[in-house]
Amino acid sequence: MQTTYIFGHKVPDTDSVCASISLSYLKNQMGLRTEPRVLGNLNKESKFVLSYFNIPEPEFLNDVKVQIRNMHYNKEAMVEEHSSIYSAYKLLVKLGVTGLPLVNKQKKLTGYVNVKEISKYLIEGDITYLNTSYANILETLNAYEVLKFDNEIEGNILAAAYKSETFINRVNLTNNDIVIVGDRYKIQEYAINSGVKLVLLVNNVELSEDLINLATLKRVNIIRVPLGTFKTANMVKLCNYVKLLNINPHPITFSVTDYRNDFIEVTNKLGHTNYPIVNRKNLCLGMMRLVDASNFERKNVILVDHNQQVQSCDGIDEANILEIIDHHNLGTIGTSRPINFRSMPVGCTCTIIYRLFQEAHVSIPKDIAGIMLSAILSDTLLFKSPTVTEMDIKVANELAKIAELDIQEYGMKMFKAASSVSGMSVEEIIHSDMKYYKNKESDLAVGQVITLDFDEILARKEEFVAELNNMSLVGNYKIALLFVTDIIKNGSYLFFNEEAKEVIEEAFGLENIEQGVYLDKVVSRKKQIIPPLLEN
Questions:
Q1: DSSP H helices in 96-206
Q2: What residue numbers bound the domain in which 160 lies?
Q3: Which of 246, 483, 487, 498 has a beta carbon 3.0–4.6 Å from 448's, enabling a disulfide?
Q4: Is 267 among the domain residues?
């Protein structure tokens, strides 16, 4: 069963993190195999919540693009470099491919061989030289072992086609020779006495007992071949190690972590049809053909707390979206087929997930109840946000009972742990909870930070404005904002890029605003900040 990844938006907040974890727990209890993931670094609040309930942080998910590991490449397509040319050819035919990666005994990639080179070798290759193993000869010639003294066989091939007397008088045999001979006793004796490397007895000729004893004394390898002299002479060169035909010791390769789109781009440029697949240790895992690029599996994902493509994981358009659980306005993510989509006008995604637990008749453990409660308190700002609903409050109280927590006491403890900006850089504060939106042809970047240390932020006002101005230029954002929310005063302070001043004044009905302007009872980005900005 393929693992399904569950994740929230790119800048994780407590709701997206806790929703991913709690929904993953629910789905696993229902028999699926899921894992929660995050798309960025956790903020202080989320870290506090997970630590408080002793729940490990989800792993980081870089993207959900289709990788080579998701494509159906041929895992059998490789040949050990000490295999015979004949066995490599048979594998090429069996797999229906035109080339194969060469590997050593540890499966480390050492080169590449193809049908073209094998054909060239058969026509132009040196038929008088053999460099192979004793085992390769047996396999290729369908032969039988008579005497074996060497695992490796190397030497010049000679076929005893002359008369015995002529052969003995004219051919000087050495230990570097391999003799192909039939039932010609004198040549057999001469070859063995000369201490040749190997004698190939064609037509299944039996060696006499006295010559076997002599060959044993001389340590001459003997193989009995069922083929005739002509066919043996033609087939024996196919016994050679296939590594002798290695056309490229360093072929273009792909890793299982490489992306499908990159594979297609490279293959279109190079024009090759076959590519070895390797891991980080250069161990060959198989071979990918260009025609295999259309045979792949998309990664299964479930989205929580977002449904905008710009806020989601890179490569989301390549993923198989199974489900979306969200409480925001409808965004830009589309699917190729119908899916389960649960969207409710509540203050928190975990409020919806609580309903899913009830519908599935699955009990909520104490720790899961604790993080779900934390998400509701975070998203509704302890029920002070205008996004809060009666359902959020009711669910929060039910979760508090399971988690055995006092809502006010725990909520203030959570916000206090998360609100300190001491030691954080301006960039870290601005981007700690930044979300991105598209309005017609314009891009918006709207960050929000909840803190009780506004005086510390105000003292660095110029730095915040400078960073927002830089963001608008580098990222081409028409509007770059930071809302600093004070849950005690129930309002927010606003910092903005200078070019957005008129748009903000018009959106919020303000005049002559200055950096750090206080907006009373404005605490919800989703309900009070984004809608008026998107209308302009």
A1: 115-124, 134-140, 164-170, 185-193
A2: 143-225
A3: 483
A4: no
